[in-house]
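Fold this sequence, please.
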Amino acid sequence: MTLPVTALTAAICALLMIFLIFKVIGQRLRTETSFGTGSDPKMDMVRGCHSNLVENAPIAILLLALLEMTNAHHWTLTGLAALFLIGRMIHIYGMYQHFADKTVRFRQLGVTCSTLSILAMALWVIYLFVTVNLLN
């Protein structure tokens, strides 16, 4: 069984994670901070971008895989995966905007998109559990 939506989503998350790792490394080199954030607020922000992706991506990828293994509707899954990925990218952009004292709206929108996609997938898995396993 292949899981193309899950595989593509995981690959894009991995690339985002690598991008953010390099942002953290760059900030560490600029501030000569080898551990933690030191007293640098930008280090806090870049680490926050990275850790937020690392915290959210695994559950989204897992839910996608579970749904894809049940032969869930391909385009709906693709849409939820896209919503999650777009939300993660908007969140990263929003973190930089927030750090620059511009606006928190992009950060909020990114979190909302990511959370809604994970919520939809979680509810879909629960729905399948109830209708396929409990009602049959």
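The chain has a mean pLDDT of 92. The radius of gyration is 17 Å.
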